[in-house]
Recover the amino acids of this structure.
C-alpha cells in the first residue's frame, strides 16, 4: 500500500489565550504542535501499511520551515518519508488553495492507494481541506472515519461516525479518508529510538518551482475566501453562579428552573 | 559563539516525553503517597518509553544518547511527579547504569543490562553508611578476595530503592575498603545483587518526602559476589564513584528545576485567581517581586544544570577536563535544592493555609526537593568542591 498522509502544524490551542480587548487569538509565544487529528491519521497510516505487509507512508505538509518539526515527529511515529512544501508563494492560502497545493504535490509523488487526513485542524476547525483535496484529486472520500479494517485483498471496511451511530462502508483504493480520534488504539508517544531513526529517513523540501502547478492557484491569489477577523463572540446571556454545598446548590437550582418553567413537576 | 538551542532530536524527545508523562505518569502520582516502594507498573512504564536505557550503550540494549538528553527526561519527570520519587528512581538508574556501562566487565554488562533496560531489575547506589555520609574516605564496609570471588562485610544506610531491588530484583553499585591502610586508594567498587542474596538483611526508614520510593539500608554479612561484578580496577573505586555522583548531581539539578518550575506554574495560576482586599493577589508587588526572583533563579538553575551535563558530555568526548566537570556540576547542585525549595515555599505561602495542607500539591514538591541538599553529596560538599577547584588541592578543607 502506498499511503500519503497530509498533516498540519498548528498552535497548541490548549496554550492559546484570547486578547480580552480585541477577542483575537494571541499566538505569540504559543508552542506549535502536530495537529492531534493528523497524529491519529499518521498512526493509522502506519498501522494499515503494516497490516498490508508492504508499502510506504509519505507524510506531507504545506507550511513554514518550522513545520519540519511536525514532519519529523511523523517520521518518528513510523512514516517512511517526509515532504515539506514551503514557499512564500503559498502564504495566505485558504482551504481551497491549500487543497490545490497538496493535490499538485500528491500528483508529483505519483501513484498512491490511500490519502489520509485528520478530520480537521484544531486551529481553524474547518474540516474542509480533506474533502476539497479529494475533489481536486478526483478520488472518492469518506469523512468522520473512526475505524478502518483491511482484508487480505486490500479491501477497506470503514466505520464512519454519524450523529446517530455508524455507517459501515466498503471501499477500494484509491480513496481519501478523513479521520476522527480512533477508538481502537491509544496515540503513541514516540520514544527516543524512534526519534533517532527518524533522523535517518528521507526528508525533502519542495518550493513552488520544484512543485510545479499553476502558480495563480497558490496562496492568497488562489484563495476564494479571506479571513477578515477571528474573534471570540461576546457572551449572549447573563451567567449566574450558584454557590453553597451540594444540597443548598440543588435547592437553589431547582427554584430557578421552576421559576423559568424549565422543570416540570408532578 | 554561544548556542543555547537543543538539538532537533532533543526537542522532539521533550515533546514526546511531555505527552508520555501526561498520559502515563501524572494520572498515577495521586496514588503514590506513603507507598514506600515504587510500583512495578511505573518502572515498566519508564522502561517501555526506553528511559532506563537512555545513556546505556546500544550493544547492551540501550540507546547511547548524550547525558543532556537524560537531563531533559529528569526535568520532565520532575514536572510530572514533583514529589521527586519517580525522578529519583530514574536518575539513580541512569547515573549508576552509566557507571557500570563505562567501567563494568563485559560479562556483567551482558548479564545485567538487558534486564535493567526492560525494568526487570533495579540498579541503585549504596555508598552511604550510618556514621559516614559525605565522609566516604572513612567508610567501614570491607571487601576481600576469596579465590575467584569477593567477600563483603559491613552495612549501608540511607539508600534509595532497596525494597525495589529486594522485591523486584537487581542490586546496588557499592563501595568498600580492600586495603584500609591505603585510605581512598584502597577502595573497590562493585555490583552487589540484593534479591535472594544470602547475608543481606534490609532495614527500612521513612523519609519525609519522595514517598513512592523506598529508603533504607542493609547489613552485609559475609556476602560473596563473583569476580566479574567488580567495577573498574581494584582499589580505584573511590575515584570512579565520583563520576557516577557527578552525573547524578547534574540530573538532580534539573529535577529541582523541573519540580520548582511546575510549582511556579501552579503559583501563577493561583495568584491570578485568588483575591484578597478586593483584587487578585497577583497584582500586589509583594507577590510579583517573589515571583520574578524565583523565576530568574529557576531559569538560572536550568542553565546551570544543562551546562553541567553538557560539560559532562564534552568530557566523555575528550573535549573537557575533570576540573571543568567537577566545577560545573558542583555549581549547579550547590544551589539546586535551596533555590527550588525557596521557590516552592513561596508558592505554598501564596496559597495561605491551603498551602500548608496535604491537599496542596506543592508541599509534596517541597518535601521531595528538600532531600537534595543532602542526597548525592550535600550542598556544603558542593561548596567545598567549588572552592577546591578555585583554590587548588593544597587548600582542601579536610586533609
Amino acid at each position: 500500500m502506498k499511503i500519503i498522509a497530509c498533516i498540519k502544524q498548528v498552535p497548541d490551542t490548549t496554550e492559546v489565550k484570547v486578547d480580552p480587548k480585541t477577542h483575537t487569538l494571541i499566538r505569540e509565544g504559543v508552542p506549535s504542535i502536530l495537529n492531534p487529528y493528523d497524529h491519529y491519521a499518521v498512526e493509522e497510516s502506519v498501522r494499515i501499511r503494516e497490516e498490508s505487509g508492504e508499502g510506504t507512508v509519505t507524510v506531507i505538509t504545506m507550511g513554514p520551515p518550522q513545520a519540519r518539526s511536525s514532519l519529523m515527529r511523523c517520521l518518528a511515529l513510523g512514516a517512511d518519508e517526509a515532504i515539506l512544501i514551503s514557499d512564500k508563494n503559498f502564504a495566505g492560502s485558504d482551504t481551497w488553495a491549500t487543497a490545490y497545493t497538496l493535490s499538485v504535490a500528491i500528483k508529483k509523488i505519483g501513484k498512491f492507494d490511500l490519502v489520509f487526513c485528520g478530520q480537521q485542524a484544531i486551529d481553524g476547525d474547518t474540516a474542509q481541506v480533506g474533502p476539497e483535496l479529494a475533489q481536486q484529486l478526483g478520488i472518492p472520500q469518506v469523512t468522520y472515519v473512526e475505524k478502518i479494517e483491511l482484508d487480505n485483498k486490500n479491501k477497506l471496511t470503514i466505520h464512519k461516525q454519524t450523529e446517530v451511530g455508524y455507517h459501515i462502508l466498503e471501499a477500494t483504493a484509491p480513496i481519501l479518508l478523513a479521520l476522527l480520534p480512533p477508538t481502537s488504539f491509544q496515540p503513541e508517544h514516540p520514544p527516543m529510538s524512534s526519534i533517532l531513526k527518524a533522523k535517518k529517513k528521507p526528508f525533502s523540501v519542495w518550493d513552488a518551482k520544484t512543485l510545479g502547478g499553476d502558480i495563480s492557484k497558490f496562496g492568497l491569489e488562489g484563495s476564494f475566501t479571506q479571513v477578515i477577523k477571528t474573534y471570540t463572540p461576546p457572551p449572549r446571556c447573563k451567567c449566574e453562579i450558584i454557590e453553597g454545598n451540594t444540597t443548598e446548590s440543588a435547592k437553589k437550582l431547582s427554584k430557578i428552573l421552576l421559576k423559568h418553567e424549565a422543570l416540570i413537576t408532578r | 559563539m554561544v548556542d543555547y538551542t537543543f538539538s532537533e532530536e532533543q526537542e522532539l524527545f521533550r515533546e514526546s516525553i511531555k505527552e508520555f508523562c501526561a498520559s502515563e505518569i501524572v494520572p498515577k502520582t495521586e496514588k503514590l503517597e506513603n507507598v514506600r516502594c515504587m510500583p512495578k507498573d511505573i518502572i515498566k512504564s519508564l522502561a517501555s518509553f526506553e528511559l532506563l536505557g537512555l545513556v546505556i550503550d546500544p550493544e547492551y540494549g540501550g540507546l547511547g544518547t548524550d547525558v543532556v538528553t537524560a537531563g531533559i527526561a529528569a526535568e520532565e519527570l520532575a514536572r510530572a511527579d514533583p514529589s521527586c520519587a519517580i525522578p529519583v528512581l530514574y536518575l539513580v538508574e541512569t547515573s549508576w547504569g552509566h557507571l557500570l556501562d563505562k567501567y563494568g566487565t563485559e560479562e556483567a554488562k551482558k548479564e545485567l543490562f538487558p534486564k535493567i533496560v526492560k525494568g526487570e531489575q533495579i540498579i541503585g547506589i549504596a555508598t552511604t553508611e550510618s556514621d559516614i555520609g559525605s565522609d566516604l574516605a572513612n567508610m567501614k564496609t570491607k571487601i576481600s578476595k576469596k579465590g575467584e570471588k569477593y567477600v563483603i562485610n559491613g552495612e549501608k544506610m540511607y539508600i534509595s530503592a532497596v525494597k525495589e531491588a529486594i522485591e523486584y530484583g537487581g542490586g546496588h553499585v557499592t563501595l568498600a575498603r580492600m586495603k584500609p591502610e591505603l585510605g581512598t586508594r584502597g577502595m573497590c567498587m562493585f555490583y552487589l545483587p540484593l534479591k535472594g542474596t544470602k547475608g543481606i538483611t534490609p532495614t527500612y526508614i521513612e523519609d519525609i518526602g519522595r514517598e513512592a520510593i523506598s529508603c533504607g539500608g542493609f547489613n552485609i554479612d559475609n556476602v560473596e559476589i563473583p569476580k566479574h561484578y567488580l567495577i573498574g580496577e581494584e582499589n580505584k573505586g573511590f575515584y570512579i564513584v565520583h563520576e557516577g555522583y557527578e552525573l547524578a548531581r547534574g540530573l538532580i539539578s534539573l529535577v529541582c528545576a523541573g519540580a520548582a518550575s511546575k510549582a511556579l506554574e501552579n503559583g501563577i495560576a493561583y495568584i491570578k485567581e485568588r483575591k484578597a482586599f478586593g483584587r487578585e493577589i497577583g497584582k500586589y508587588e509583594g507577590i510579583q517581586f517573589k515571583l520574578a526572583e524565583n523565576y530568574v533563579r529557576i531559569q538560572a538553575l536550568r542553565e546551570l544544570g544543562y551546562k553541567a551535563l553538557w560539560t559532562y558530555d564534552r568530557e566523555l568526548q575528550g573535549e573537557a577536563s575533570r576540573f571543568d566537570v567537577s566545577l560545573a556540576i558542583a555549581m549547579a547542585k550547590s544551589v539546586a535544592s535551596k533555590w527550588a525549595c525557596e521557590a516552592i515555599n513561596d508558592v505554598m505561602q501564596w496559597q495561605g493555609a491551603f498551602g500548608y495542607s496535604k491537599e496542596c500539591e506543592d508541599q509534596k514538591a517541597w518535601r521531595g526537593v528538600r532531600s537534595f541538599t543532602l542526597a548525592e553529596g550535600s550542598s556544603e560538599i558542593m561548596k567545598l568542591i567549588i572552592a577546591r577547584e578555585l583554590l587548588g588541592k593544597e587548600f582542601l578543607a579536610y586533609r
